[in-house]
Amino acid sequence: MHSSFSMILGFAAALLCTGILPAGAQGLYPAYDDAFSARIANPTDNGALAQFVTVAVNAGQYDQAISSIEQYLIKHPRDARARLSASRLYYHVGSYELARRQAQYGLEVGDLSADEQQEAVRLLARI
């Protein structure tokens, strides 16, 4: 389940950074409430956590998405993809120092694909 969380999270964060996902789009709040309820009901389910992060990003609830990623990283500190996703979100909200730290640590862990490594390097160059 660890890798599916990273994959879903990475997809949501990538869409956020490309501007494809509209923050606060209409009709997303019921989905947000459902995803939040599922997350609370199943606190150890990484799939529910990943779904909540995706819906939170779609709803423009970036702080909630970030706190959920951070919660995940407490249990899985060496998940480089989750670190990169956290970096994207921190960058998006203007927390550049936190974005830098997460991207650097994700690179140090060394479990990123070549494309993800390039993305992390590009993100660091923008900071």
What this model shows, in words?
- There is one protein chain.
- The chain is mainly α.
- Helices cover 76% and strands 0% of the residues.
- The chain contains 7 helices and no strands.
- It is globular.
- Mean pLDDT is 83; it is low at 18-26.
Question: Would you kindly provide a brief summary of this structure?
Answer:
The chain is mostly helical and 127 residues long. 76% of the residues lie in helices and 0% in strands.
Number of strands: 0
Compressed to H and E, one letter per element, the order equals HHHHHHH
Largest sheet: none
Query: How much helicity do the residues have?
Result: over 70%
Q: How would the global form be characterised?
A: globular
Structural class comes to: mainly alpha
Could you give the distance between the termini?
32 Å
- Work out the strand percent: under 5%
Radius of gyration: 14 Å
> Count of helical segments?
7
Low-confidence stretches: 18-26
Mean pLDDT: 83
**Regarding quaternary structure, how should these chains be classified?**
single chain
